[in-house]
Amino acid sequence: MKRAIKYWNGFMWKNKVRSFLGQLLNLIKRNAREIFFGLYLMAVLSISVAASAQNGVQYGTMMFFTLVLVSVCLIVPKMSAKIRSVNCEVFVPEKKGVIRFMCVFSLVCFAFFLFWFIAYFPGAFSPDSINQYGQAVQGRYNDWHPALHTLFAFTLPLKLTGISASIVLFQIVCFALVLGVVATTVYRFCGKKWAIALMLPVVISPWTYNIAMHPWKDVSFALAAALCMAVAIQIYCRKDVSIRKMVLFVVLLTFATVFRHNGILFTGMLVFALFFQMPVKRWLILLGLFVAAIGFVRGPLYTVLDVEKPGNRVVETMGFPLSVVMYVAKECPECLNDETSEFVDLLTRAEPNWKSNYDLTGFPSIKYGKIDLAVIEDAGRLKILRMMAKCVLTDPVHSAIAVVAMTSIVYGLEINCDHEIERMPNEYKIGYGGNAALKKIADNYSMVVTYIFFRKFR
């Protein structure tokens, strides 16, 4: 009898385990996307915290487990419910309402930009910007800084006005219009509340206005990329695009590709992704026009303008993998193989104390020092990519920290708003003025937002 009861209890226990495992498996199947997204979010945020708190192991560990709980138990279900509640095909606002929303939003943004512009008049010109300004004035273009960007952001406003201040003014007008277009895109498909909620962090961040004072290729690339995404969202929701809008899309893709030497990494992946959202024939037309536009800019247009093509192209395009390799070399030199170790030694032989200068901003933190850039050119892209891959395999932790530190400005909790506006002396008599009272207000606002609000997340 005892034996029978023991056998029965064991049988029931096994059934309970099987039932529990079955229920757990069904739960995973039903919520697979949320679970995977939660794990992804947990990894991104925890690595981001680790990258910003390397000297505080206990603090990083505490934040890691806090973020696990927050991402899995709170954020993911709420985000999933909100996203599922949005029906992008139902909300169709009136055309007048869309135009009115875009105009109001753009004007509000422009008012903030104009405040910063008056405070830091006529903007901020770093060495790169001064170099491009000189190219525009002299009419001799060099593709070290993308020549198409120099033509668009420097030559165009200077030809129209002849005033150096028009360069940054032109940029902030474009910036305000692009923010209006992006906000309006969200408004058209999801409503006003979503548009305001998603754009609010951009509008209130001092980083937005500080970086807009610099006529950098990074800003123009970001604006072109944002417009590309606005069109891509419309294609995703409507599964097609008119020929007229496709031509505009190709122009924006071309700008985003050429404004940065590595812009193709963004536009190429975006065009590839749209293959699954568009009719095949229409997608092939898009691809053909895109390739033709890139060829026209880099071929006939640059030939007519006699654009000089400088060397050091590997340095310009390999900043990301070099950041991974150099960070692993700093934190775990024993993880490097012989090839990578020799490469790092040759690169830094003229600057033996490079490790004290290297930080998580990546390779640019030592790029302008005494390192031998010719070593990078001699190595070539394939070798550098291979060395990065080996670093990832031998030291995945520091590789991941380097990757997230370089990209977390997009998605991380570490929101850096204390960027200093750089104003360099120059030979072109660009005089720096501004309004001291407005500048003080802008600086105080930056301090309040950065040190009181955003740093609470650190």
What does the largest sheet look like?
Answer: none
Structural class: mainly alpha
Q: Estimate percent helicity.
A: over 70%
Give average pLDDT, whole number: 78
> Hey, roughly how much beta strand do the residues contain?
under 5%
Which stretches are poorly predicted, pLDDT < 50 over at least 5 residues? 48-59, 412-418
Count of DSSP H/I helices = 21
The first-to-last residue Cα distance is 64 Å
Overall geometric form = globular
**Strand tally:** 0
CA-based gyration radius: 26 Å
Q: Could you give the order of the helices and strands?
A: HHHHHHHHHHHHHHHHHHHHH
Q: How many independent structural domains?
A: 3
Describe the protein's architecture and organization:
The chain has about 450 residues and is mainly α. The protein has three domains: about 1-85, no CATH class; about 95-315, no CATH class; about 315-410, no CATH class. Helix content is about 75%, strand content about 0%. The protein has helices at about 1-30, 30-50, 55-85, 95-120, 125-140, 145-160, 165-190, 190-205, 205-210, 215-240, 245-260, 265-275, 280-305, 315, 320-330, 340-345, 355, 365, 375-395, 395-410, 435-455. α15 (about 320-330) packs across α20 (about 395-410). The chain is globular, with a radius of gyration of 26 Å. The N and C termini lie far apart (about 65 Å). The relative contact order is 0.10.
